[in-house]
Design goal:
single chain; 113 residues; alpha+beta; four-stranded mixed sheet; 2 helices; 4 strands
Length: 113
């Protein structure tokens, strides 16, 4: 079964910010990052439950998962998401070294435990 993948507003903002940051340093690097991101999103369409719970999961009332992906240079990024029915909602996109996501950091607001 295929899932529908929807990136929420803060995740869209993360994608734009990261892509711009990389593009300012390497336009080809930004293009490669976007390709890696698209591949990760495609994997979510196939089987979002194959990925592990995110380290932030205990802070949320709902299950929060993460899909890891990396660039050719080996930098690891995380898609932070939840699954609602047949829809994968990407809440945030994080690079290595970024702070963990908290309930107030996602759209729509999610209650913490």
């Amino acid at each position: 079964m295929k899932f529908r993948v929807k990136t929420l507003p803060r995740a869209d903002a993360d994608i734009l910010r990261i892509a711009r940051y990389i593009h300012d340093r390497s336009p080809r690097g930004a293009e490669a990052w976007l390709v890696a991101l698209e591949k990760a999103l495609a994997r979510l369409k196939q089987d979002p439950l194959a990925s592990s719970e995110a380290m932030e999961n205990d802070q949320f009332e709902i299950e929060i998962r993460q899909q890891l992906f990396k660039t050719r240079r080996g930098l690891v990024y995380r898609l932070i998401y939840t699954v609602v029915g047949h829809e994968v909602r990407v809440l945030r996109v994080r690079g290595s070294g970024q702070a963990p996501v908290e309930p107030h950091d996602v759209d729509p607001p999610l209650d913490s435990k």
